[in-house]
Design a protein that fits this description.
This protein is an alpha+beta fold and 132 residues long. Helix content is 18%, strand content 46%. It has one domain: Lipocalin, CATH 2.40.128. Strand 5 and strand 6 form a beta hairpin.
């Protein structure tokens, strides 16, 4: 309450609106994750595009697709307390890759950094996802 009052007194109503528009990592909801994202991987020239949508069965979860250079896979996952977990699958049954990341502080929920672990390979790669 004091922070909101200070924002109102110091910056006016626009400062209060801007603070509300920029959630802290733990405040980011699945609804704010919906949309188109671009992912870059450490050490790889090839990136990926993800489309995250509402999961039709689990209201607080995400579902969508990832496209890497024309290869499309399904993704599903969650965000909780600023931590993002996504699983990708080529066939919708087996997990082919796991994404574990965190919302970057100050990004307003528009950037996620973490590691991507492809199935069958021992080497995890760092990734950065940015909302388009």
């Amino acid at each position: 309450m004091k922070a909101r009052l200070a924002a109102l007194l110091l910056g006016g109503a626009s400062a209060l609106a801007n603070a509300a528009d920029c959630p802290q990592p733990a405040e980011v909801t699945p609804l704010q994750m919906l949309g188109l994202w671009h992912a870059e991987f450490d050490g790889l020239a090839q990136g990926a595009t993800l489309l995250l949508e509402r999961h039709p069965v689990y209201a607080q979860s995400l579902r969508g697709a990832i496209n890497r250079d024309g290869e499309r896979r399904l993704v599903a996952g969650d965000i909780e307390e600023g931590e993002v977990t996504l699983e990708e699958s080529a066939d919708g049954r087996r997990i082919d890759g796991t994404w574990l990341g965190e919302v970057v502080p100050g990004s307003c929920g528009r950037e996620i950094r973490g590691s991507w672990q492809p199935r069958g390979e021992g080497k995890a790669l760092g990734f950065t996802m940015r909302k388009l």
